[in-house]
Design brief:
Chains A, B: It holds the Pfam family PDH_C. Two copies of one chain form a homodimer. Chain A has 13 helices and eleven strands. In chain A, the strands form three sheets. A five-stranded parallel β-sheet of chain A has the order 2-1-3-4-5, with helices on both faces. In chain A, helix 7 crosses helix 11 and helix 11 runs antiparallel to helix 12. The radius of gyration of chain A is 23 Å and the shape is globular. Chain A starts with 5 loop residues before the first strand and ends in a 39-residue tail after the last strand.
């Protein structure tokens, strides 16, 4: 990926942030956007923004497609026709199956690697873009055929190098299923809460009383509505399936409240809490670079581990490059188990990946947080003093 | 409230934060907690922590009761018996009807003012307490009888002076109804999302992909489960009623996704968004002090207004102190309309309140955020350039 030229097509919030980070990292890059004002705005900030899409991508080694979801299938074909034949194409859309199908239909398997950085804000537009927006983000990439892993490897290295990304390999279908629950359904819940508050007879006192739980729970309800609608309808089946699962849990919680059943309610709450406290640390620090020479499958959870390693175990595996089947299977298995790549070392006839894989969460329904009502007013039992963080390293805001 | 002595009974997260702020503000204050380790921990930090509850409150002018919800009815009676007869008692529990009923039963109307600061974290214990936790918080107080407004006024002034609180007067019943939607139901939704993720076959990839929407939407699922169960069961009827309203909106959203109906889905999303962007600015800055001499009902939304004033209109009203009926009606109406007190000026036979009252949100279902899919990739139409914050002053994280 040395001296690669890059291009970003569609420079809104995400594309613009990709562009700004590439500029910051010293990668030669051009931007393009269908909106002339955005191109002018980009030029005024010193970025090369040709008016012509074909000229933007004609000598690129990698192109990021970052327009709205519904435009991607058409854009990928147009860009592929204009870009060099060995150029790697990727996108940043929030659903992956539809664009992967479109790319296969256009015969682009092996050139197009569907992607999705799990980051964003409820804002939009190049002016809202920031080079650090995607820093350390989990970034799904969808490798396809075993024989076509070259573009995937090149792109993964670029993302790790430039964005300190946690590159998570997944099939488009596995991505869409997990993203429905990890991202799309939370948008639905946020709108349901905000929408019900807007229709409530006590709407204005709800607004005044809106505490952290309401503000956090509805933050993404500020996202432009068309963008959210495209996302939900672009992943319809998986969203409906995961909504059903969430509503089933909601029904159980409501039934326990209705029945005034404190033990059952507390058990359900604690079961949910176990998942929350088992989330990997948020990527406010980028993953550490892979350390060459570290033995395979080393557990790095000792005192020497970085905070974000607490829930993850390091792996290191080498593959013979010509046969990608075993490598592809390992990559997809890694993503399915909540793992991500931390490094790629190409060798003579081999490729070596380093990675981290999440530990399973504590499935025990026992809430280890204080439950004794008397003690809950004060400090926990000694030893350790009254410090009572729910979880080491857990973010408290 | 000059030279008032204060006491805090139950020094966990909230009580501890009240205590630390009172210390910081130079108010003489004693703490008490049923846990000996907490009392020792407090003493080691230089705070007066008697072992005896009666001694803690015997010369207090105001006592904050901050133990777990289920202990409050008993604690309020015990403290009232030990404190001076003109001491104002208040609590910080997240539901108000039950404790108000208990206080009336103990004949404490006129001494006990139920309270609820709308702030917190998912942590617990004195070591997690911070003096700034409640700074600028919306703080509900429940005045009761018109003849007994004196303690309410004294307490409101203390909270405004020491905590820069947005004191919101409400009846216990109005508080519980609004808090169910503004705080309690968001906890249920967070647990439903986290709980469904924990049971999902793709649990581990959901953990890895958990983006801002999932993390924000489940943050409060890290709260100690017993505390959350007590909160929900302590406000059972209102929680169930508001859950029904949220599930109805959720059903409408799901039906629109199921029907693949983009116009209806977008309209529902935009309706919800209108409420979200109409939340008052979060209290990361305390409310400005009331400005004496400002004429009544002055609109302060001009260029001269502070950011948190954008959604609120200032009011100033004087009442003859002896008859509290009109004053009480105004106070409760203020809270019901999403207003809060900003100052209290006692005079000769009069009391003058300054306040802010929320404007109604824009009820238009039109989402003024960018909806054009082409433009959504880039910048908005001129004029104004490509800056595209969803709402002026909206927090973006």
């Amino acid at each position: 990926m040395d001296a690669v030229r890059a291009a970003v097509v569609g420079t809104g919030l995400i594309g613009g942030s990709v562009l700004l980070r590439l500029v910051e990292a010293g990668v030669p890059v051009r931007g393009w956007d269908p909106d002339p004002d955005t191109r002018r705005y980009g030029r005024e900030r010193g970025v090369d923004f040709p008016d012509d899409l074909a000229r933007t991508v004609r000598d690129a080694g990698v192109v990021f497609l970052a327009g709205p979801l519904v435009t991607l299938p058409a854009t990928v074909a147009e860009v592929a026709a204009a870009a060099p034949v060995d150029c790697v194409l990727t996108d940043v859309g929030s659903t992956k199956s539809a664009v992967a199908v479109a790319a296969r239909r256009h015969g682009l398997t092996g050139r197009f690697v569907p992607g999705h950085p799990m980051a964003g804000t409820e804002r939009a537009g190049l002016a809202a873009a920031r080079p650090e927006l995607l820093r350390g983000a989990t970034w799904v990439l969808c490798p396809d055929q075993p024989a076509d892993l070259g573009p995937f490897r090149r792109l993964a290295r670029l993302l790790m190098d430039v964005f300190a990304a946690r590159v998570t390999p997944m099939s488009p279908e596995a991505h869409d299923e997990a993203a429905a629950l990890a991202s799309h359904v939370p948008h639905v819940l946020a709108r349901a809460l905000a929408g019900a508050a807007g229709r409530s007879p006590v709407r204005d006192s709800v607004r005044a009383l809106a505490a952290g739980s309401f503000r956090d729970g509805t933050r993404v309800a500020g996202t432009p509505s068309r963008r959210t609608a495209d996302m939900l309808l672009g992943n319809r089946a998986a969203v409906l399936e995961q909504l059903t699962a969430v509503r089933a849990y909601l029904d159980e919680l409501a039934a326990a409240v209705e029945a005034d059943d404190a033990p059952v309610l507390t058990r359900l709450l604690a079961e949910a809490r176990a998942l929350r406290v088992a989330l990997p640390a948020p990527p406010d620090r980028p993953a550490l670079p892979a350390r060459p020479g570290r033995p395979a499958l080393t557990d790095v959870t000792g005192p020497d581990a970085a905070p974000e390693d607490v829930a993850a175990v390091a792996e290191r595996l080498s593959f013979s490059a010509p046969d990608g089947a075993e490598e592809l299977a390992w990559l997809l298995g890694l993503g399915a188990s909540g793992g991500w790549l931390t490094g790629c070392e190409p060798g003579l006839g081999t490729v070596t990946w380093t990675a981290r894989r999440l530990r399973p969460p504590d499935r025990s329904p026992v809430d280890r947080s204080p439950v004794d009502p008397v003690r809950d007013a004060g400090s926990p039992p000694s030893p350790g003093g009254p410090a009572r963080a729910a979880e080491p390293g857990q973010k408290v805001t």
